[in-house]
Structure formats: C-alpha cells, structure tokens
Design a protein that fits this description.
Distance between the termini: 43 Å
Structural class: alpha+beta
Shape: globular
Largest sheet: 4 strands, mixed
Strand order of the largest sheet: 3-4-6-7
Radius of gyration: 17 Å
Mean pLDDT: 77
Strand content: 15-25%
C-alpha cells in the first residue's frame, strides 16, 4: 500500500545550526535526501504547474504579465525541488499562522534553515528536518492543514523568501481561498 500523505513524514535529518555556522565544508545535501522523497508515490490530486505564457511586449500590462510569468516559473521549479522542512518539538511540520493562513515553513538549504533559527533565537537547539518535494508539500500536506494553508520558502533569509499561497493553480482547488468571495 502506498502513502498518499495520510501521515506526516518523520524527520530524516538532525542539525545543530550553531555547528553549521562554524563549519566550512561538508554540508548536508538536500538533493541526496531527495531520492527518498522522489521515490514516494505521486500525489493523487497533483496540481499541474501552469505553463508560463510568453512574455508580452509592448502592452500596458507588461509589469503584471512579467510578474505572473516569473511566479509561474518559480512555482514550477519549487514543485520539482526537494526542500528542507523542519519539525517542531511535537514532531509536526513547522508551521506559522499569519492572518488566518497557516504556512508550512520550508527551506532551500541548511543555510536558509540556519538563518530562520537565528532569527527565532533558537540556533543552539537541534533541529529535526526532512527533505520533501515541493509538489508533495503543495498537493498533499497543505490540504491536510486545518483551514487555508500554503508554503513559506526561506522565511527569515536575508534575500527574502517566497510564498506559495492557497490560490488556484498553486494548491488543489478544494483548498483554495476564493479571493472574489473574500472582497
């Protein structure tokens, strides 16, 4: 029997982030852990990544079209990439609530996770985490959250992070927030 996200994956790595800050080499490679994530059964309700439209030239909506194209490209890359997802003290995925939306915190590498830990003042504690494909987070884990949810990538990083909100085209339609009804 295959796992279609009925349970939260257990941690596959541990990291004392102060050790990472002092280390100069041999870091945990999320791509190496990705093989376990990639071998999991594909989600049953996968949301296909939207194909970015060709960038229009000369229209008055160039800025909006360029932003949509860039987001679609970033979303596609995120869906294909294994990211690090930390676990809280109870063994659940680390989430944060903001304005009624629960965000699963995910990180592109250990340095980004270390920046998050430093920002929280918790760099000295051991952080359990697991590499998970972005598509699995969006298609399987977000629908398991109570209420609207999305993924926050690299929160607390210097270069800023990226949000994948609960809207159509990002998460399954059954868990999207209808922006037109909210207005």
């Amino acid at each position: 029997m295959s796992d279609h996200g009925e349970r939260i994956p257990s941690p596959s790595g541990r990291l004392r982030l102060t050790d990472l800050a002092a280390a100069s080499g041999d870091l945990h490679d999320p791509a190496a852990s990705a093989s376990a994530a990639e071998s999991e059964a594909p989600p049953s309700e996968a949301v296909p990544a939207p194909e970015p439209d060709p960038l229009p030239h000369g229209s008055e909506d160039d800025t909006v079209a360029a932003a949509r194209w860039e987001f679609a490209a970033l979303l596609g890359e995120f869906r294909r990439t294994a990211v690090l997802v930390p676990f809280d003290e109870q063994g659940s995925l680390w989430t944060a609530d903001l304005n009624g939306v629960r965000w699963i915190c995910a990180f592109s590498n250990e340095e980004a996770l270390a920046a998050f830990a430093r920002a929280r003042g918790a760099a000295g504690r051991e952080w359990a985490y697991r590499a998970v494909l972005g598509a699995r987070l969006l298609d399987v884990m977000v629908p398991m959250l109570p209420g609207p949810g999305g993924v926050a990538l690299d929160a607390g990083s210097e270069g800023g992070g990226m949000l994948f909100p609960p809207v159509r085209g990002v998460v399954p339609d059954a868990v999207t927030v209808d922006l037109e009804e909210a207005q």
